[in-house]
Write a structure and sequence with these properties.
two-stranded antiparallel sheet; about 240 residues; 10 helices; mainly alpha; Four Helix Bundle (Hemerythrin (Met), subunit A); single chain
Length: about 240
């Protein structure tokens, strides 16, 4: 009795939160409702005895995917009022597509029938001596290993496509030089100092990193070009180089 009440409670909250995900006007609120839906779905998995799926749903989807959605939505700061200005122009096309999809779903549901042998194929034999996580791993990585690898390949292609579509090469971007990093010696960046005991930082003064400053071309009082470092940089005080 208590399990049934808990099921109906979690299922009801899940349906309401799922509806609010698509109906909330604020995208941040939509992501928060999505997190609530994930938690209630995890509770339903716990009631069904699938504790591994419940923990994966909380750790992966709530802890990573939903938080990533929230950060992306908050960082983009999209003006949704401006996006809704042209909504009425596309309303007839959207309504037509929606009606077509509704008719197709009605045709599929009307002509769908349950195969007689599907009841035996739906359930996997359960070994009472093995935990739920081990049984799930055996089924996933033995019977459905090819489908699992194919799904991973699809996700990899989608990730590469997203990177290619969003990658922009800017002139101000700084690229990493692997060859320069590998060829760098400790003498280029490190300097050993003989600091007397008890002197502290006052005994060695302020030391700048050993980085070559870019040379600038200027002009002297007679109009001749001269090469020097940035005038705003002050020479290091104290210490020995």
């Amino acid at each position: 009795m208590i399990a049934q009440l808990a099921f109906y409670m979690f299922a009801g909250i899940l349906l309401v939160s799922a509806g609010m995900v698509v109906s909330a006007r604020n995208p941040v609120h939509s992501v928060l409702y999505l997190v609530l839906a994930f938690f209630n779905a995890a509770a339903l998995f716990l009631l069904a005895g699938a504790e591994f799926l419940a923990m994966i749903l909380v750790i992966v989807y709530v802890g990573a995917v939903a938080v990533l959605f929230l950060f992306v939505v908050m960082m983009l700061d999209i003006n949704f009022a401006q996006l809704r200005e042209g909504f009425q122009r596309y309303l007839p096309i959207g309504a037509t597509i929606g009606v077509i999809l509704l008719v197709e779903l009605a045709i599929v549901l009307g002509g769908w029938s349950l195969a007689p042998q599907s009841a035996g194929l739906r359930a996997v034999p359960i070994d009472p001596n093995v935990t739920n996580t081990v049984q799930l791993g055996r089924v996933l990585y033995t019977d459905y290993i090819l489908v699992f690898q194919a799904s991973g390949l699809v996700l990899l292609v989608a990730m590469i496509g997203a990177i290619v579509l969003t990658l922009r090469d800017r002139t101000t971007s700084r690229h990493q030089s692997i060859a320069a990093q590998v060829a760098r010696t400790p003498a280029d960046t490190l300097e050993l100092l003989d600091v007397p005991s008890g002197a502290g930082t006052k005994g060695i003064g302020f030391l700048r990193p050993k980085v070559k400053e870019p040379e600038q071309v200027g002009h002297d009082d007679h109009g001749h070009a001269k090469i020097g470092h940035d005038s705003h940089e002050k020479p290091p005080t104290g210490g020995h180089h």
